[in-house]
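Contributing: when you submit paired examples, paste them exactly as shown. First protein:
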Amino acid sequence: MGVTGQIAPGFERVARAFEQNFDEGLEHGAAFAVFLGDECVVDLAGGWRDKRKTLPWERETISAMYSTTKAMMALVVAMLVDRGKLAYDEPVAAWWPEFAVEGKGDFTLAQVLSHQCGIPGFVEPIDTALWFDPIGLAEAIARMKPMFWPGEGTGYHPLIPGYVAAELARRVDGRTIGGILRDEVCGPLDLDYRIGTPVSEFERIAEQLKPLDPPQFGERNAVLQAAFLNPWSAPDRDGEAWKTREIPSANGIGSAKATARIMSAYALKGRIGERRLISEDTWRQLVRERVVGMDHVQPGRIGFAAGLQRNTQASLFGPGPHTVGHTGWGGSAAWADPDAGFSAAYLMNRKGTHLFADHRRARLIDAVYCCL
């Protein structure tokens, strides 16, 4: 199945890199989109969205993005910060007093979003159905005892930050993270992206091909065990409940073009087109480095902003020193370089085993920078 889409003059090298991933047998189905300023300069799709290779992956195909969703969650939290409803350097317990138990009273919003608070997952067993009950899960999170403390590094939290953000949004705004994103970003801008996807959209979602090998984590330890390896560490991914409920750190579903456009808010310092979502001051608070170092869960040296990955790990998002974004399970990613003024999103359904790095994505990133 060939590649379809559009390429602005001067970006032909990106199309060749995208096609090369298919030529080398690295892809099943994939999409890639880039906005330079407010112009879409790349919008490509290729391969198959189903396992049996009967349905082409088109530009209108939507796909699960897993932890790439955290970049969208971070933007919504920043919108609440911009309105004075939340503050990055205030304790979570200021809005959610129950969160203060077990020594968590001083944990700030920024520390939770940057994986510094030692609550990567549940040590003791929980019913996995609880992941689909955001209020019940928030109550369980409030009772958690940290496994490590701010100042002791990071331990990547796959799901917990999204539920913390969701509970805070409920308390200070009355809406969900997905609801705010729909009402104030995707709806007004007509962007094909959602956190919590109705059944009516299921036929457009790409089927995911699980990797043959296990993910490449760091050294096995108790923090990694709680984050990813316990049987109750996550609900059943990709089932109906997973798609329809809101998990703001993990279950965003959309098109590559829509995802890249949302990321324009990072490239353009708070705006998308004429719509300003956050002030430049809030944007600076959002993207600045909160912590950097070796992670308890993920292999390598990692830097985090308030809900975003910073471009600390070599070649994560290319050469831009101020680039921010987020990767997702299997290889998906969305990122933005405010110095170069571009944003991008890469989606695919043949999953790799590296949690952050991905050779296919790196090739596309290199091609974009060669065209700038």
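Second protein:
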Amino acid sequence: MSEHPIEAVPTRCGCAGKTSLDRVVRPALDEIRRSAPGVAVVDGLEAGLLPGTAEVERSVVDGPGGGNGTSREFVAAAFLGPECGSDSEAFRAVLSETYRQWAGMSGRATIRKGHSIQLETSSEPTVWGETFRSSGQQRDGYRAINVDVIHALPGLDPVAQATVATAHALNDCYTQGAAADRDIRPIVGHPEGSDIDPDRVRRWYVAAADSGVTVREPSLVAHDGRGWQFGASVLAATERLPPIHTGRIDAGDEVSLHRPVGSLALYAGSVDGEQPVGSDVRKRALEALTADHAPVARAIEASCPRPGERFDPERHLKWAGDISGPGIGGLAEITAAAGCGLSVESVPPLDRRGLDAVRRRWIVPDVTVETNGPIAAVGTADALDRFERRLAGCPSADPTRIGTVTGVSGEFRPAEGSHAERYLDGIERRPR
């Protein structure tokens, strides 16, 4: 096997080219909830949450019901061709059939976290899954579980690819304040016929992960599309109540972003022959893509209530999540769910000159769409002051208050002088 066997497709880079949430994913999941008996699909959380027990048994799905008839909690990752990935009914049919099979032997399948990745060329859809079963003594807190897969980034060796993919998958767990007992299973998609060795894949991820991270045997997914994909199914633990209080969000709350945006756009815009950004900017972008945000997770955990402690809006975060796939625009959905709106007052660029150079040629016009993106936090000004002080010791942190929650339901607008429309595709076309 060659040392660098990775095929990257420039039009599919990191989180680019994801299946549309609004047009495809959500309508399909709504129909599955209505029509698939024994199947429950959990939505609205950054990571799936399991009770905080001493052990979690994990197994890759190898047949209906996970192969043992007892596991009921699943994460799922779908590898799709363009036709299935652009048609809600086709997407629903693929997921529904698989989820029904998983429910077949256990009687019920709860999908705690789902993810889909769209291949550039026609490919038969494949749905990969893993089951989790909590066991052992009950402990305080929760286990956060997640699955994510991204397209290979041009110009990176396999260990760097694994580093980005691992950090990106863990990021959703980190938003829940979960950074303890990290346990990952590598997932690598590859074109059929690729000479791929599972032991070598595991070594890539072991080299990529912190010494305290458990790396399990990898899952390899062969497909008839182009390019490689790197990802992971992950879990991590927190001893506190995660910041999932969207119902508490109110007008006057503020939004903080833990670091500037634009790393994926800057990196992707610097890999072709034109080189619109300098090597120093490309290096900073790669550092952001590979950064492990575990210290941010610990700051989030410290900003959440202890078991039995009452929620205090002046001390505790109301919500936290990463902005990777949807970009900053995804925050508008969070505030809308609370019956509020969002005024965007600042979009902090990782490198303003570099983003100005690449934004018109970047395949996602919204340069805040990220891979392993910044973590956003919502809360009162006092709670965010406390949180940002805790970020002082985090190597990747450079927090900015980017907006204020408004009392107008569904509102998503740029504040005067923010220049948000320069970087957020379509912000001016959203309801005011």
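If you have annotations for the second protein, write them as plain sentences, like these:
Residues 246-429 form a domain with the Phosphoribosyl-aminoimidazole Synthetase; Chain A, domain 2 fold (CATH 3.90.650.10).
The longest strand covers residues 126-151.
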